[in-house]
Amino acid sequence: MRRSLKFLLRPTAKQAAALAVCLEDHRQLYNAALEHRRTAYHKAGVSVRYGDQSADLKHVRADDPRGQGRWSFSSQQATLRRLDKAFGAFFARVKAGRTPGFPRFKGRGRFDTVTWPKDGDGCRWDSQPEHPTATFVRLQGVGHVRVHRHRTVKGRVKTIAVKREGSRWFVVLSCDEVPAQPLPATGAAAGIDLGIASLVTTSGGGHLANPRHLAATADRLAAAQRDLARKKRGSTRRRKAVARVAALHATVRRQRLDHAHKAANALVAAYDVIVHEALKVANMTRSASGTLDAPGRGVAAKAGLNRSILDAGWGVFLTILSYKAESAGRELIAVEPRNTSRTCARCGHCAKENRLTQAAFRCTACGHAVHADVNAAINILRAGLALREAAKAA
Predict the structure, then answer these.
(1) Coil, strand or helix: which one is 347?
(2) How many domains does the chain have?
(3) Same domain, residue pair 103 and 37
(4) Tell me, what DSSP letter sits at residue 289?
């Protein structure tokens, strides 16, 4: 299995400055490569590929030995591949008939990661293994940077990336051949329904709370954003205000991730088979239809629902649950979500009127009354077990 691990870096002041310069040079390389592609196509109708720009990279480095020439050749190739991937996604959207979104130039706040594709090529994880207490990662042009390693790294380190989040620096390891850690069988299966009031409701009637981290921080965040709006662009005070807003968002993100990990661990420890809805969160959180002149009905309500869904972090939770289930040897099944909340788990009658409120379910055919999320979770479990049996019979 492949897993990603993220650790906090503890750079010295000199190393932090070098990391910032490294990130800025890679951003400029990305933007220059994008400009090269745009100009070649508009002026001569020529499409520039990754191979062409990678071949030109040695000349760029030779002409700027104290700038671009300082950094790892492989990391610069990874930046060019990042641009090539953006163009690939653009053409895929064009082909599919969706809104294309042409690749954009990266501002200082829009480029935060540098990647080294191979451990040992311009970088080295655990570069000082003889050190008795600390772990270091060596980065070309930066040096040996201390790492706050809070967990054991298992498997083989394949790629290393450095990411800036606010004023902090992190190293992200992508590891291959990570051994599975199967848990003892429990013999239990559960369907789970994701919601707003409770993040997870199980078919057995259990509820895992939704802490609503963004809502809890909303007042502080609104005050910080108002303070930011009053600052003059380009000023030192504005940069500090931007950092405060970013720090609040980072806190919410870490809280949401922590809760998702704990909720996923609880489910994986309790059940051998977990069934969930195959939710398309991006589609569910699209804006309500309408224009600026005719905004349509329920736009404010839809915006509030979208905010609540994103605050709950359904997509993040399902991603974490997926890899934890794989590592623990659990079976995870995704089912079609259509009508799971409208169908009676007792008699199978499906009607919109069955759902009285967000929490109340009463079947109009048989009178069965139960919590709406529990009813949906039971339907999800049944659908998943039916898919499982069909797959075994095939």
Answers:
(1) coil
(2) 2
(3) yes
(4) S
At which residue do the structure tokens 């055919």 appear? 365
pLDDT surpassing 80 at residue 193: yes
290 torsion bin: left (phi>0), alpha (psi -120 to 50), beta (else): left
25: amino acid identity, one letter: D
3-class state of residue 135 by DSSP:
strand
Is residue 177 part of the annotated active site? The answer reads no
Q: Which tokens hold the place of 53?
A: 């720009």
> Active site includes 193?
yes
Radius of gyration of the chain (CA): 25
Whether residue 140 is found in the same domain as residue 282: no
Residue 23, by phi and psi: left (phi above 0), alpha (psi -120 to 50) or beta? alpha
Asked if residue 217 is part of any domain, the answer here is no
pTM: 0.84
Q: Among all chains, which residue has been given the structure tokens 């196509």?
A: 41
Read off the CATH number of the domain in which 196 is found: 3.30.420
pLDDT tens per residue across span 207-232: 999 999 999 999 999 999 999 999 99
Catalytic residue among 277, 331, 336, 389: 277
Residue among 193, 219, 258, 353 flagged as catalytic = 193
Q: Which domain holds residue 340?
A: 189-211+253-303+311-393
Number of helices (H), then strands (E), belonging to the chain: the values are: 10, 14
DSSP bridge pairs for 137: 125, 145
One-letter amino acid at 143 equals: G
